[in-house]
Amino acid sequence: MAALAQNDSINSSKINIDYTNKGFQFSTLDKNYSLHIESRFQFRFATPNDQSPVTFNDFYEESKTTFKINRARLKIGGNAYKPWLKYYFEYDIAQGNLLDFRIMIEKWDFFKVKVGQWKTYYSRERVISSGKQQMVDRSIINRPFTLDRQQGIEFYGRVFPKTLADFTYHISVLTGAGRSATTNDDNHLMYVGRLQWNMFGRELEMTGSDIKYHNKPTGILAFAVATNRSNYTRFSSAGGGNLLGYETNIPGQYRVSQALIETAFKYRGFSWQNENHIKKITDYQNNTNRTLTGYYVQAGYFFSNILDFVPKPLEIAGLYANYKPDIDINEAYEQELGLAFNWFFKEHRNKLTAEVSHFSYQNIDSITQKEWRFRIQWDISF
Question: Residue 102 region, left (φ>0) first, then alpha (ψ -120 to 50), else beta?
């Protein structure tokens, strides 16, 4: 027993234990092995409802004031065998879902490989973690245009860093059937490409708000395209689904092709991000085509940088989003206006957000419905 205790003591002395921005981290002295464990909780109050309206009829639903644990996550990651052979998985404790599981080979900055399941690198708004957003949640644009989590392989990297030709690229070949789908509905795969120009020779991290106070202007201009043929016309964290007007679900029924142009910028407490989307859905079963468009603009600022009486942890942010479910029907549109107040106790790891939003939907008959919503959310990570 004494020998066993002595061996345990020797082994434990070879392990570093630190608390980082990814939670508790255990690592060997040679850095060939590491493991970090993090938990995150998101508490939310919302009235009169929590979810953004999806259909015109949602405005007629009864008010359902909500207080809930909106997210509860367990995150585990690190590296094994070599510092550049990395792994990560994320589990949704509240819903009992395995969200992410992936292996990354990141030996070279200009060429990296990832296999498993993750949020597809397509749009900035979706890739940013729900714990690092500027608003309480994503805009109304996310639902119709996100590719969400998929399984497959991705090639990515950064070339010509710190020059005027600084680019980050992502090329993905995916199952195209959504989260936890182990097989495809047909022989068609999803193909996604994203090219991001780091215009000042500095790469912008996938987070909201300029909490790091960038002393030098840092911005990106990105283009992304995707195509997929499946029985789905939209995706979410629950997996594959369909937009309104696409109720049937036949393998290979829909060809979805979409593209976006995206900008983001941070400088001295000011942050900006914008996406412009277009998406075409071809229904082979009913021989129809439909094109959807949408965009949002979002900005925030720490006014303590110019006004002494404003507390330093306070950020004020605003959002405007516009969505047209069919460009051939000019009368139909959806709009969202949002104003958020963020109080950062410990950057994004411990923050409180209060948000007021206004929704305006108009149908094909030019009948308009409007609704206000208030939400307050505490997001904390350990």
Answer: beta
